[in-house]
Amino acid sequence: MSQTTLTAFLSQAAEPGLAALIEALARGCVEISGHVRQGAVGQAMGALDQQNVQGEVQQKLDVLSNDILLRVCAEAPALAAMASEEMDSIHPVRPVPAEGGLLVLFDPLDGSSNIAVNVSIGTIFSVLPCPADSPGREPVEADFLQAGRNQLAAGYVVYGPQTQMILTLGQGVAAFTLDPESGDWVQTGQGLAIKPETKEFAINAANMRHWAAPVRRYVDECLAGVEGPRGKDFNMRWVGSMVADVHRLISRGGVFMYPWDQREPDRPGKLRLMYEANPMGFIVEQAGGAAFDGAGDTLDRQPRGLHERASVMMGSRAEIERLRDYHQA
Ligand code: AHM
Ligand code: MG
Description:
The protein has 329 residues and is of the alpha+beta class. Helices cover 28% and strands 24% of the residues. The strands form 4 sheets. It has an 8-stranded mixed β-sheet with strand order 4-3-5-6-7-8-9-10, with helices on both faces. A 5-stranded mixed β-sheet has the order 12-11-13-17-15, sandwiched between helices. The chain has a two-stranded antiparallel ribbon with strand order 1-2. Strand 11, helix 4 and strand 12 form a beta-alpha-beta unit. Residues 56, 107, 110-113, 204, 240-242, 258 line the site of 2,5-anhydro-1,6-di-O-phosphono-D-mannitol.
């Protein structure tokens, strides 16, 4: 039986401009995967003596991955501009086309702290429509400030024991696995669905003393196990790469949380709305789960800045609804 490739899938499921952009992202991720697999045999390991706009020390692989995605995405004819977790400001590619064109945002290398310890890392991307108000003008940052609900596509690639892409075009979620022999992305899943209930959650428990009361309540009740109000034992997992932690819950159910905490009350959370929370939230919703930011659905939030942070809770629908109830109690 012949296998469906990403190219064949996109030719059916996406309009040509979007298909070309996703193909470009996929080519870039094959290149990044090559550098990840080379490890210390190649030139991409180690930290650089510089920080990104988030104030985080950049790894060589962060910058290399960003450069790769900038290069390959520029080849997509419908792309007007890009934005990246690793760049202060937007990267315009061409004037806004008459029909609007596309914008892409990415976290080129998610889970940077896991690079040095050979644990799964990934790439996250989000595609938005570029407003077609005035064709021929330069794209600007304000064009990107759209709620996650507007996304045309979102995906992530996990560089783990296998290199896999999870993709949504807003009509369900499909999975592709990179065949290391042929270099093709072969479709290995469709209609991915997150189990509505779960016995597994992911949170950095070292921050427990800083959490807000509703998050503490939720985790305390999970930890109370079969003797507690939930009446069942839970399991806790934390890889420390959002791509890997969310991939696990897409594969077998669960909840992922990086919530607001009181260390820096004015900072909504650690993770970024537009590079992490929105694309992952879109995928999770498309797989039947839910994504909540402590006040409302993540995808409904109007961003005020490119690098805005968000409180993140996503995964199995019944668990997220429980967290929502606890926040509204
Ligand atoms: P990064 O994009 O700079 O790698 O940071 C985001 C990562 C997420 O992948 C992960 O969920 C989180 O940071 C881990 O944080 P912690 O170090 O608190 O475990
Ligand atoms: Mg990240």
